[in-house]
C-alpha cells in the first residue's frame, strides 16, 4: 500500500514539475489572467461583468468571483483538455513509459497517478488564476474582498470540470485511436453537446432533469442558480452592455441550494468511473499496441486517410513547390509553406473547403470558421522542426539560422494568405479599411502562432490561447470593436487595426529576441 | 537463471519479429548481436515484459514472466533503445522518479547512482541540456537503481562518441559482476571486450550463442587478407565480404571472409568482426544454434 502511494505520488510530482517548468504553461497562465482583465470591463465603458435585466451587478466578491470562476470553468472544461492531454503520450514519445512498464508499478497505479497529476495541475492552475483574479477586486472592485464568497464561487463551479477533464484525458490517451487529433476533435463536440444538454434542461425548466447529474461543465448549475436567485432569465456574464440609467444591484454570488447538492456531488464523482474503463484499454506501452514497433511504423487511421488524399494533392503540391526552387530566402519561405501541404494533405482539402465555402456563403458567417481552421493549421509551422528534431539541420543553413523567426513568419503568413485568398478577394468591395482589418487579422494569427511556436515549441500553446480569444470574440459578436480583430462583424476601427498590428510586431520582436538569446547560448 | 523456450512474436501484419527462439543464460554480460531488423529489440522487449510473446515461454528463476511479470520486474533494470528524458526535470528528480516507481525510497541510493555514473556534479541541472552520453549514463543509472539481478540494455551506444562509448562499456562491465546483463547492439566492438557470451541473431532467429572464443573458432580458416590496388578494391567490394580495408602506400590492405579466398590471399587470424560477418553471410538463418 505504501509502495503504491509512493509510486502514485512520484507520478504526480514528476508531472507537476514537468508542466509548471514549461514556458507554455506560464504563457497560458498570463494569457488567461490578462483575459480576466478584458472579461471584467470598467463600468465607465458602458460594459460590465454581470448584467441582470439591463442592470449591472456591482463589483463585489460574489460578482467578480462568479465572473472569473465562469471563465476558469470554460478554460478548464474546454481548453484544459488540450493542455493536459499529453501526459501518457509524452511517456510514449520519450520511451520513459517503457521503462515505467518494466517496473513493478501496476497499470492502475499509473493511470490513477496520471489522473491525479492532471487534477493537481488544473487545480493549481485554477487556484493561481483565482488569486490573480482577486487582484481584479483591487483594480475594479467596489466592495472589499470577502474571501469565503469569492472562493465559494470557484468551489461550486470548477471542481466537477477539473475531475471530468482529468479523467477524460486519461481515458482518451489510453485508447490509441482517441489519443491523437481525432480525440481532440471528438472532445470538442462532446463538450459542446454536454453544454447543450444542461443548458437546454435549465432553459426548459427541468424537462430533462437527469442532465443535472451529468453537468460536468457547470453551466447547468450556473444558469439554474442564477435564474433561481435573480428570478429572471435575462442575465449575461462577461463584458456585456448595461443600461446606465438603471441602478446597480448587489449580487452575492451563487450558493449551493439543497436540490443541487446531489447533482453536483454526482457530477463530481461520476467521471471517476472512466478510470476503470481506461484501464481496460491501456496499452502499458506495449509497442505493438502503441504503434511503435521498431522499424515498422504503423500508421493510425487518420494517417491512412491522409495517405488516401496524397495522390490527389501531390500534383497541386508539386506545382506549389515550383517557386521555392532557386535557393533564395523567399524561396525558402515558399518551400516551407508548401511543406505544410505535403505533410498534411488534409490542409489541401481545407483549402478547397475554405475556397468553396467562402465563395458561396455570407462572409460574416464563414470568417470565424475560417480563422478557427487557420489557427489549427498554422500552429504546426513554427513548432514542427523542434518536434521532428530537424532544428540542428536547419541551423546549419546560414540564412535560416539567423532569420529563423522571420522565415517561419513568412511561411505562416504565406500559408494563411493562400488559405484566405477568396475571403480577401470578397472583402475588397467593402473598402480598404475592411481589407486592412482582414489582412491585419491574418497577420495577427500568423505572428502570434509563430511567436508562441518558436518560444514554446508546443502547438497547443497557440491553439489554446487563440481559441480562448476566438471564443470570446465570437460570443462578443462585435459588441466591443476592439475585439473585432479581423473584421468578422464589421465593427473594426482604425484603433483596433493598429492595436493588433502593434501586438503582432511586439510578439515577433519578443520571439526574435528570445530566439537570438537561445542561439547565442548554444 | 533466464530460460527462453521456443519464443515467437508474430505481428498483426503476419511477419515475425522473433521466431522459435530458445536460449538459456545464467550470469555475466551477454552480447546480443545482429543487424538492424534482426529481432533483438523485440526479444528484449519480451524479456522485459513490455510485450507478450505470441508463443513460447520465458522463465526467470523458473517463474514464467508472462504469467507473473511482477516477479521479474522487481529484479529488472531496463534501458530501452532511443531512450528519452523529461527535459524539465533535474537529474536527481528524474532518478528519484524512477526509484519511486521501482519501490526504492532511499535518497542516498539516488545520489550513489549519480556518483557511479559520474553525474553527481550535474545532479541539479535539468536533463534537457545533457549530451547524448550523459543521458545514456542517466539511463543506466535508472536501470541499476533497484540493484537488479537482470539488466537489459538495448543499443545503448547508438549515437555516442568514441570516448563515451568506451566509458559506457566500462560501466557495463563493472556492473556485470554477479548479475545477468543482456546488451544488444549491431556494433561488434561494443561487446567484444566485455561479453562473456555472444548471441547472434538474424531474421528473428538465433544463429548461434557461444563465448567469444568459440565464436572466433567458427570462422577459423575462413578469414583472408590481401593487398589489392584501388581499382581492384572497387570491384572486389561488391563480390567479397570485406570486414576491414585500410589504404596504405602499397595498396589497400583488405580482410574478408568466405569459405575460399577466390583471389590471391593468405589466411588470417579471425577477429570477432570477421566471425560476425561470416555468420551473417554464410550461416543459415533459422538453423539450429551452432555448438559452443
Number of helices, where a helix is a run of at least 4 consecutive DSSP H or I residues of chain A: 25
CATH homology-level superfamily of the largest domain in chain B: P-loop containing nucleotide triphosphate hydrolases
Summarize the largest interface: chains and residue counts: A-B, 34 and 43 residues
Averaging pLDDT over every residue of chain B, what do you get?
90
Number of domains of chain A: 2
Number of strands of chain A: 3
Order of helix and strand elements from N to C terminus of chain B:
EEEHEEHEHHHEHEHEEHEHEEEH
Whole-number total of structural domains of chain B: 2
**Element order, helices and strands of chain A?**
HHEEHHHHHHHHEHHHHHHHHHHHHHHH
- Main sheet record of chain B: 6 strands, mixed
How would you name the oligomeric state of the polypeptide chains in this document? heterodimer
CATH class of the largest domain in chain B: Alpha Beta
Strand order within the widest sheet of chain A? 2-1-3
What's the helical proportion of residues of chain B? 25-40%
Let me know the number of strands of chain B: 14
Gyration radius of chain B (Cα, Å) is: 21 Å
Q: Tally the helices of chain B: what do you get?
A: 10
Amino acid at each position: 500500500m505504501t509502495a503504491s502511494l509512493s509510486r502514485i505520488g512520484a507520478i504526480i510530482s514528476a508531472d507537476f514539475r514537468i508542466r509548471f517548468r514549461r514556458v507554455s504553461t506560464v504563457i497560458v497562465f498570463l494569457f488567461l489572467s490578462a483575459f480576466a482583465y478584458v472579461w471584467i470591463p470598467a463600468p465607465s465603458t458602458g460594459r460590465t461583468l454581470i448584467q441582470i435585466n439591463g442592470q449591472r451587478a456591482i463589483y463585489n466578491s460574489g460578482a467578480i468571483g462568479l465572473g472569473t470562476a465562469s471563465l476558469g470553468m470554460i478554460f478548464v472544461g474546454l481548453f484544459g483538455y488540450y493542455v493536459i492531454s499529453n501526459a501518457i503520450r509524452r511517456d510514449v514519445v520519450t520511451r520513459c513509459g517503457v521503462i515505467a512498464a518494466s517496473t513493478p508499478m501496476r497499470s492502475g497505479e499509473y493511470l490513477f497517478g496520471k489522473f491525479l497529476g492532471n487534477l493537481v495541475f488544473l487545480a493549481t492552475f485554477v487556484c493561481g488564476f483565482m488569486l490573480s483574479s482577486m487582484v481584479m477586486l483591487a483594480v475594479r472592485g467596489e466592495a472589499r474582498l470577502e474571501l469565503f464568497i469569492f472562493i465559494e464561487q470557484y468551489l461550486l463551479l470548477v471542481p466537477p470540470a477539473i475531475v471530468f477533464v482529468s479523467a477524460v484525458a486519461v481515458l482518451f490517451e489510453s485508447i490509441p485511436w482517441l489519443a491523437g487529433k481525432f480525440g481532440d476533435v471528438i472532445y470538442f463536440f462532446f463538450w459542446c453537446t454536454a453544454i447543450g444538454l444542461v443548458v437546454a434542461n435549465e432553459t426548459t425548466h427541468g424537462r430533462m432533469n437527469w442532465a443535472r447529474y451529468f453537468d460536468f461543465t457547470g453551466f447547468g448549475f450556473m444558469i439554474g442558480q442564477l435564474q433561481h436567485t435573480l428570478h429572471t432569465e435575462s442575465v449575461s456574464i462577461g463584458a456585456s452592455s448595461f443600461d446606465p440609467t438603471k441602478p446597480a444591484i448587489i449580487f452575492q454570488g451563487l450558493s449551493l441550494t439543497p436540490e443541487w447538492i446531489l447533482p453536483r456531488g454526482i457530477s463530481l464523482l461520476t467521471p471517476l468511473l472512466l478510470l476503470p474503463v481506461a484501464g481496460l484499454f491501456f496499452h502499458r506501452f506495449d509497442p505493438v499496441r502503441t504503434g511503435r514497433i521498431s522499424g515498422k511504423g504503423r500508421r493510425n487511421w487518420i494517417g491512412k486517410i491522409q495517405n488516401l488524399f496524397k495522390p490527389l494533392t501531390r500534383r497541386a503540391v508539386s506545382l506549389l513547390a515550383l517557386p521555392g526552387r532557386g535557393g533564395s530566402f523567399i524561396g525558402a519561405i515558399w518551400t516551407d509553406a508548401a511543406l505544410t501541404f505535403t505533410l498534411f494533405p488534409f490542409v489541401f482539402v481545407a483549402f478547397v473547403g475554405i475556397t468553396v465555402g467562402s465563395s458561396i456563403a455570407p462572409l460574416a458567417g464563414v470568417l470565424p470558421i475560417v480563422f478557427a481552421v487557420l489557427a489549427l493549421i498554422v500552429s504546426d509551422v513554427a513548432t514542427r522542426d523542434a518536434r521532428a528534431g530537424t532544428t540542428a539541420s536547419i541551423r546549419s543553413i546560414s540564412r535560416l539560422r539567423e532569420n529563423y523567426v522571420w522565415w517561419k513568419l513568412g511561411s505562416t503568413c504565406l500559408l494563411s494568405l493562400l488559405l484566405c485568398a477568396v475571403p480577401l478577394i470578397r472583402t475588397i468591395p467593402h473598402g480598404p479599411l475592411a481589407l486592412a482589418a482582414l489582412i491585419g487579422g491574418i497577420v495577427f494569427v500568423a505572428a502570434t502562432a509563430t511567436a508562441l511556436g518558436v518560444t514554446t515549441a508546443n502547438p497547443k500553446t497557440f491553439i489554446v490561447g487563440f481559441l480562448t480569444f476566438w471564443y470570446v470574440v465570437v460570443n462578443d459578436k462585435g459588441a466591443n470593436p476592439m475585439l473585432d480583430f479581423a473584421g468578422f462583424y464589421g465593427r473594426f476601427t482604425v484603433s483596433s487595426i493598429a492595436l493588433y498590428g502593434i501586438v503582432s510586431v511586439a510578439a515577433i520582436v519578443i520571439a526574435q529576441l528570445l530566439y537570438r538569446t537561445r542561439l547565442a547560448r548554444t | 537463471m533466464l530460460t527462453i523456450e521456443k519464443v515467437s512474436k508474430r505481428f498483426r501484419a503476419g511477419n515475425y519479429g522473433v521466431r522459435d527462439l530458445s536460449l538459456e543464460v545464467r550470469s555475466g554480460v551477454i552480447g546480443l548481436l545482429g543487424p538492424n531488423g534482426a529481432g533483438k529489440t523485440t526479444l528484449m522487449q519480451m524479456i522485459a515484459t513490455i510485450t507478450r510473446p505470441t508463443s513460447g515461454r520465458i522463465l526467470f528463476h523458473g517463474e514464467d514472466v508472462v504469467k507473473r511479470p511482477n516477479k521479474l520486474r522487481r529484479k529488472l533494470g531496463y534501458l530501452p533503445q532511443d531512450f528519452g528524458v523529461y527535459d524539465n526535470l533535474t537529474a536527481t528528480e528524474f532518478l528519484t522518479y524512477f526509484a519511486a516507481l521501482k519501490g526504492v525510497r532511499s535518497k542516498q541510493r539516488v545520489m550513489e547512482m549519480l556518483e557511479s555514473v559520474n553525474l553527481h556534479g550535474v545532479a541539479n541541472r535539468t536533463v534537457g541540456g545533457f549530451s547524448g552520453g550523459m543521458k545514456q549514463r542517466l539511463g543506466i543509472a535508472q536501470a541499476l537503481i533497484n540493484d537488479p539481478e537482470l539488466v537489459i540494455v538495448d543499443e545503448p551506444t547508438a549515437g555516442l562518441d568514441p570516448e563515451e562509448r568506451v566509458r559506457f562499456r566500462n560501466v557495463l562491465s563493472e556492473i556485470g559482476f554477479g548479475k545477468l546483463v543482456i546488451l544488444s547492439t549491431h556494433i561488434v566492438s561494443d561487446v567484444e571486450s566485455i561479453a562473456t557470451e555472444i548471441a547472434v541473431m538474424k531474421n528473428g532467429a538465433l544463429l548461434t550463442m557461444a563465448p567469444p572464443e568459440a565464436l572466433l573458432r567458427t570462422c577459423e580458416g575462413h578469414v583472408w587478407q590481401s593487398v589489392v590496388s584501388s581499382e581492384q578494391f572497387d570491384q572486389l567490394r561488391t563480390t567479397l565480404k570485406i570486414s576491414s580495408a585500410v589504404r596504405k602506400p602499397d595498396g589497400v590492405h583488405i580482410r574478408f571472409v568466405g569459405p575460399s579466398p577466390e583471389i590471391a590471399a593468405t589466411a588470417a587470424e579471425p577477429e570477432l568482426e570477421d566471425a560476425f560477418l561470416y555468420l551473417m553471410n554464410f550461416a543459415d538463418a533459422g538453423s539450429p544454434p551452432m555448438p559452443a
